[in-house]
Each structure stands twice: as structure tokens, then as C-alpha cells.
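We both want to read C-alpha cells more fluently, so let's practise on a single case. Once you have written the record down, we can walk along the chain together.
***
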Amino acid sequence: MLHFIQKCSRASSKMLKYPFTVGLGVSRKIDILSLKTSLQQNSSPLFPRLWFFSSFPVCMSKTQCYHTSPCCFKKKQKQAILPARPPSTITYLPNSPKPALYISLAGLIPFVAPPLVMVITKTYIPILAFTQMAYGASFLSFLGGVRWGFTLPENSPAKPDFLNLANSTAPVLFSWYAFLICERLSEAIVMVIIGLGIALHVEFFLLPHYPNWFKALRIVVTLVAFFSFIITLLVKDAYPEKGPKRPGQVE
């Protein structure tokens, strides 16, 4: 290519030495001079290299803008929008006050002891099952009283309105109905389980004002009570009945 351009430049220089006519030669000479200058510029060995290096930063800047603006901006925007995941409620259990933690753990004994004794002895003892149900119903009444008392202080986040006070009496109604049908012990236990589940749902989703450590204690106590009642119902169907009759049981 360079050899061809050099030949063209030599031919143009020879044509400049022998012009043709005056009028025609002047215009032809001007055309030849413009052709020669353009060929000399294009035939310069530094021109392609300079053009390449002069256009290279522009291409790189465009490429960098293309690669950084849409993709990286979206990633940074997503990282800025996504909030930090809050810790789960159960992780606040070690932050509980020591008296509340120890008393709550000790309060699980009446839930765990009756089914544990029946599983060890491989017998269903109605009086133990009744005491477990009675303790669960009493615990429901205690939860209702806790909710009522939580609304009394002036600086409490839960106000003493109809919503809070009516929900505080709901566990008491389940407890009362469980004692009312205590002759059908299995149904009474199921009623206590339903009351515990509804109380936990109300306290967590409808009226979420309790401290996180108290919520963690409520989760632990409710789960332990739930599984203890399930074990008692399973023991009643799996093992034979033995021991003294529960109060009010029909012969």
C-alpha cells in the first residue's frame, strides 16, 4: 500500500514539471497540488499511529462509561436500597433479665413433668394430665393479665383502648372454657393449645409492643407447652390408663 502511494506521489511530481495549457493547466495544477498534499498526508507513516493513539482514549472512555454506568450503578443502587436484615426474635433470649429468665424456665416444669413421668412409666395417668391442663389454663389467664397490666402505665406504647383490653381478656375466655369441659380432657387440652397459639399470634402480629426479650421468652414457653401437650395426647392413645381418676371423671 505504501509502495502504491509513493508511486502516485512521484507521478504527481512529474506532472507538476510539465503543465499542459495555461488555463487548463492552472486548474489541473491546483487539482494536482491538492491531490499531492492529500496523498502526502495519507502516506505519512506517522498518521495511522497518531490517529490510533488519539482515538484510543476516546474509545476507552466510552467503553468505561458503558461498563460502569448501567451495570455498576444498578448494583450500587440495589445495595443502597436493600436494608440490613434484622436479627431474629429468639436471639434476644440471652438479653432477658435474669429473674424473668429463671422464673420462666422454672415455670416450664409443670408443662414438662407430667408427660415425662408418663413416658418413663409407659402409662397414662389422668390426674397428671389434668394438672397439666389446669396449669396451661392458668397460664393463659396470666398472659391476659400481663397484657392488661402492660397498658396501664402512662408512657406505655400500648394504650388502654378496646383493642388492647379486649385482646387481654381473650386468653381468659379460653382458660374458662377449658375448665368448663374438663370432663373431656383431650378437648380441654386442645382448647388450651388453641388459646396459647392465638395469644402468641395477637402479641406478635396484632399488638407488637412487647420488648424483644419478652417475645423471645413467649416463643420458648409456648413451644415447650405445645409439645408437652402433644406428647400427653399421644401417651393417652399409646399407653394404658393407670392410677387414680382425675377430679370429676365419670366412672
The radius of gyration is 45 Å. The chain is about 75% helix and 0% strand.
